[in-house]
Protein 1
Amino acid sequence: MHLLVCGGTGCRSAESDAIVDSLNKAIADRGLENDAKVVMTGCFGFCEKGPIVKVLPDNTFYTQVTPADAEEIVAEHIYKGRRVNRLLYINPESQEHVEDSKHMGFYRKQIRIALRNCGFIDPENIEEYIARDGYSALGKVLTEMTPEEAIQSIIKSGLRGRGGGGFPTGLKWDITRKVAAEKKYVVCNADEGDPGAFMDRSILEGDPHSVIEAMAINGYCTGASYGLVYIRAEYPLAINRLKTAIGQAREYGLLGNGILGTDFSFDIELRYGAGAFVCGEETALIHSMEGMRGEPTFKPPFPSESGYLGYPTNVNNVETYANIPVIITKGPEWFASIGTEKSKGTKVFALAGKINNVGLIEVPMGTTLREVIYEIGGGIKDGKNFKAVQTGGPSGGCLTTKHLDTPIDYDNLLAAGSMMGSGGMIVMDEDDCMVSIAKFYLEFTVEESCGKCTPCRVGNKRLHEILEKITRGEGTMKDLEKLRNLGQVIKDTALCGLGQTSPNPVLSNLDNFWDEFVEHVTEKKCRAGQCKHLLRYVIEPDACVGCTACARNCPVNAITGERKKAHEINQEICIKCGACVEKCKFNAIFVR
Amino acid sequence: MAIVKLPENKLNQLIEVCKSFNNEPGELINVLHKAQEIFGYLPAEVQEVVAKELNTSVAHVYGVVSFYSFFTMTPKGEHPISICMGTACYVRGAEKVLDEFKHHLKIQVGETTADGKFSLACLRCVGACGLAPVVMVGEKVYGRVAPDGVKAILEEYSA
Ligand SMILES: Cc1cc2nc3c(=O)[nH]c(=O)nc-3n(C[C@H](O)[C@H](O)[C@H](O)COP(=O)(O)O)c2cc1C
Ligand code: SF4
């Protein structure tokens, strides 16, 4: 029997290390070492109910396990063969225990290609990767295919870049291959800066070898013998697993000189990011790897022509790479049979926000938002109403109820005013203020703008100021118009992708939630109750007994009234601190 | 800026680090990562040494240090507190949690308390969105933090 314990960052933060120790101890106490093995894997995806422990071969799926539960799991399940019911997932609709993951709504609609090994193998053991067909794609390419044939396979599969842009991957490889140069580089973009996205890190933590194998295949196809992974320094676990994996691949002769007895040589090094979102942009990323400020430069020349140190450089995203080995082994036709006409395969999303099942999911392109939110995501938290879902992070926009049945693919999301982006998907409910959300993203952009070009550096700051003004209740209709015009100018004139997309959250919210913006401006009202300056604290005269508790506790003396008579709050003076509400024993004070 | 006297042994360590990267100016960011591990932060004096060793200008080093948010020029507190401001944490109330920390510690983001015990920072998505809102104190992660849970967290470190 195998006990798989989730070792993704989410579950690890919730003590999965201690769970492994306790399981091992309980197993040793009973002398069951030969019958049961504990393995720490990558992310299972079902982060909402972590830490997760899965038992193989029967696929039992235990949720919210604590170190104290280890004893019972071993004593009951391993020793006596009885499931521990209280730790099973409960179907929220039928209130019944679900025994294995195959029967959970969360997994039913998913197809796992990029995440095929996450949660199944020990990422620190190359043999487990090899046992699941690992490195056979590299073998096949090196011994049976020419670079051109392999590239044709990728082109035929229809795979498009998963880093946000959606550029056809095979085509990019072909361009890099055709440039003549004495040296070439392939780069893996693991900068993942979109706040609220953790797909790439989960792949690197759960299945680092798939990325290494794909980079080597890329090297063979494009004629590069050096690979570089640009990874955020904030991802220590992913860095460690990647380092371990690279070391093992070298030991097995899968990296280094003369790979698998051929004359192909390839090796990989890591480069660390240092907390700058713009470094995810490929030209900025290359400058950062060269030890400079991560400022983007104008394209062309594209990195495929002149990149790292001036050599042709093929940049691809982590998830793009993770798809490559399977395309080679299972064939491009198989891959192209999944998805929509122009978007093939699957996409990994980090589903988060006001949703019941927060987690990492992988669905075929063409799945609708409704299926993702209600079937996989289990609906909105606390029975509230769905309001919007944000995709594409700071470059994307919010989609609303009217988009729920739109099949998700690159082109549909773009047409709906958002974009695929790297795969962050944040769900919002009726308590979220769309003006504040737009402001939140702008705050991010203002902070992360590299400052090189004026539209982005100054323009976004102005956008942010106008939004700030609106949330303070000082906005005018003219300001709304200004947001639109200025946003369009920034889009048209900024130098790099960051600036060209930064007004999207504002513009799409203006389109989709126009009434809410107008309400903030004309009625000075925030229907979600998020904009503090627009709140009004009022005393209900009938409920007030005149105990004076509120007046005595108001820090700015905004409350007046005689003893034993109804009190009143002066809105001009009130600073909306809420102290009065806390002190009122008669529930007489309301927020409007 | 106050002049900081760098301890001799750490200084030697830094010079060794530069050497291990062949004193290549292209390795600047890797050197700075190591330097920050050694000193905890990157005061002007450290940047001067790095510039000299890598044969580049102090202006270039400063340009890089100030560009990347991972590098800091002020020492962090004994217990650095980071609040995740990723979107998932934001919509689940991270801002209110941050306000509570500011209120209790009487410092702003990027500052350190007078006794050097706590410093406050925001970070973007630690990838534990299932636990949102998330707060990190040093290496320890606290999940599903509510504003009224802030005091208890601080008390753990106040003894
Ligand atoms: C502001 C900005 C941030 C980006 N961040 C990322 C990122 O975090 N990860 C990523 O893979 N691509 C990112 N990209 C896209 C890259 O520039 C590049 O297109 C991508 O890495 C190419 O790989 P792909 O074709 O496999 O998607 C970003 C682009 C922009 C403009
Ligand atoms: S658009 Fe923004 S991030 Fe891009 S180059 Fe201009 S200032 Fe820098």
Protein 2
Amino acid sequence: MQKHITLAMGSGGEESSELLEKLVFRHLKNSYLARAEDATPLESLQSPCFCTDSFTVSPPFFPGGDIGKLSIAGSCNDLAMMGAKPKFLSLSFIIEEGFSVREFEKILRSIKNELAINEAVVVTGDTKVVPKGSVDRIFITTSAIGERKIEASQRSIQEGDSLLFSGDIARHGACIFAAREGIELESEITSDCASLWPIVKRLIDDGITIKAMRDATRGGVAAVLNEWARATELTFEVDEASVRVSQEVQGICEILGFEPFVLANEGRFVLVVDPKDEKKALKILQEFNEDAAIIGKVTKSYPGRVTLQSEWGTKRFLDMPSGEILPRIC
Amino acid sequence: MELRDLYVRFRDPKTIKALAKEIELEASKLANPINIMEVCGGHTHTIMKYGLLQLLPKNIFFIHGPGCPVCIMPKERIDHAYILAMQENVILCTLGDMIRVPGSKGSLQDARSKGADVRFVYSPLDVLKIAKENREKTVIFFAIGFETTTPMTAALLESAIAQKMTNLLLHINHVTVPEVMRELIDSRDEHIDSYNNQIDAFLGPSHVSVIAGSKIYEEFPAKYNRPVVVAGFEPVDVMEGVLMLVKQFNEGRCEVEVQYKRSVTREGNRKAQELIEKYFEKRDLFKWRGLGNIPKSAWKLKDAYSDYDAERVYDLPKEEIEDHKLCICGDILRGMAKPTECQVFGTACTPAKPLGSCMVSSEGACAAYYKYGNLL
Ligand code: SF4
């Protein structure tokens, strides 16, 4: 097999099947893909839930993950946040001519890994190779279908509910910025990129009354809370001291002038629960990540807004991030 | 030194609370309330973001000054940037929020969506690299900022000359702090007494004095009887600066003091000052958005470097463009009004669609009030 991906490999001929057989199928084969037909018949599902997302992250490899891991975790997390168990995925690659076969294989391995974590399978897919310069190395699109286990939705959020966050914030965004700006820190920032279904499953199995969940991807924690605040006309009060930001991430924010609240996370989520469940939920979250914390509560003080309480007793709004938060991060 | 050392101590909750107590105690001895103008938008941002107004006693007020280089840029000059960006074969580079500010034709972001090549740089010296990589294009740096960024633009020009670059031009919009402070103190309205300025003291930005020294403020205590404290940008710095000013009033002193001793000296950075003086000279007048024309308040390239001056190489419109009638930015900058007193604050005027200059960059007073609110 050649060392670089060529246009011929995406043209449907001999070379295409080599790419598929030797690489893609080798890592992802299952009984659905083995049928190799134009479309894949699926069994019927209970309360199905469907989502799609595209991934263009630059650079495609970053500390803590790569575009492959991200593409599976990203779509599966969208399902998990709706309380749905990920089951079937579609997977499409658009690859720039000349992309290294070795790197492509690395991406496939991460995909395989992440699918296993979600106990989900790829049932259909596509690979296109485009001339140099048409895309930046590799873009991936995934769609995912899952089965809903609970009815989590922002509509259930009420005054008095507790807000939790599943770890420290802003790692993915800061990691990508550091990689792109070539900022060297004493200790490297690893992305928080991860699949959330295992945590959500535990919460459900342990009987936590989950009101709503949202993974804090683009726009970070600030975007999630502001969207909820606007939709519910409630106030999301966050206690700044309870939100964990790692030293390295804070450092990047200082250099680039960002607030960690607006930077992306790819494996962290905001959880809203009934206050009676907050302690129990926290314990479960902390089993997965010791930085998980109760970060605030839902009130009616400033309808439609998010407030941040400082450690010295002052309060301010945490606004929706606006403008370009520059590079491609997912 | 670790990066962390630069900010951790200066955001320490205990220190901030202790300073708030001390200020309250000192302020209780004041004969009259005092209005402190923080000249720089960076300070406005710190004050609003960290909620410092909520920690101050009732007899200390802030007047949010004009020190945000993006906010004070008049529309006609934003149009220059837009026009230059839309030229064939041009790459326009600029800093920060400048990309989002709308002129009469639109913002640089709009220009970019129409196909213009507009780039955002972190440092003026990045422009040199862009110019080298794009020899067949004209690379124009739309230079903005106070004394802090001016030497970097001069350094860019120096490198461009040394390396005989022929495809790099500068559009200079560098402004200076003392001139606008003087203008604000001197401003009078013959008919309305309340229009006389209300400023009792100044908080000066540390980064400007790192370059220009603390000496640039000496005229204010001497000639105008207004004390100045040069302070850093972290909440502890600002609180300490306020405390130092209040103490001056209580002790009957009126002088320039430096809170930010970490890197401010009286003389400043002589090398940087020489670099500025080598390439730049003062403009007779420069229009500040919201405030009007202020003598000697901005730099331009000396005649000897006119080949590098985008304002001379291109024919750019000179007509002034007025701001929206309802906008009271000028009053806000003079301390006559608070952002929330503007009729269109947060309704017709928001950061996404700013009508006036104070809403433009996150360092503008209206934008900071909108973004962080003035809660409690
Ligand atoms: S809210 Fe807008 S229009 Fe009103 S003073 Fe501020 S910038 Fe001007």
